[in-house]
Amino acid sequence: MQPLLRYWAAGLIRYDKAYKIQKLLASRHQTQKAQNVILLVEHPPVYTIGIRTNPYPIDEEERLRRLGADFHRTNRGGLITFHGPGQLVAYPIVNLKELNLGVRSYVCLIEKAVMRTCRHFGVDSVRTSKEPNETGVWVSNAKICAIGVHASRFITSHGLALNCNTELSWYRHIVPCGLVGKEVTSLTKLLGQNVTVQQVAPVLVRAFCDELNCTASNFTHEEQQEILKEIL
Length: 232
What we know:
The chain is of the alpha/beta class.
């Protein structure tokens, strides 16, 4: 019998709320036999920075906030990036030890799942990069999916952000992932037709399950409400 991957499509929620959900689900792995989970969300406009970022100037943070976006400092890998409506953000909370995965092989697994997803929609030229600072999924010189993960005692958090029909102009105000001269793109831009998060999410879950050799199972409404009560 294949192991389960529980998934929760939580819709549009604030970054800080999603982070609280991740922390709660990760803590369950440390205290009990917990199931692997993938949390699927969209965020209102928010810029986030990871642990590779040097101290980020307060005036830059304030400049970004004046654009109408939130701003968060995080414990994920990577540099500054943007999340917003039209972008599928997936946070897998999984036990790497049970899956017999190291962090690097786990990141490669995420990249493969994203490439499967893009190819499903007809974007066949997706690629990864061998450059250590170019983690993620690319189409030519443009990044379509950013990846930044965290692992503590084998339990993962944070994850990936795949541009579906994201408003890409938000990226003009930063150097995404610290990569000068690189572009960002989306499924909608590449295909010339609107591709929504709602269309992409189930495809990504299936691709993730294929890579992990597991079966997907949705969170029940009761399970969702229990978690939301705990993080209040």
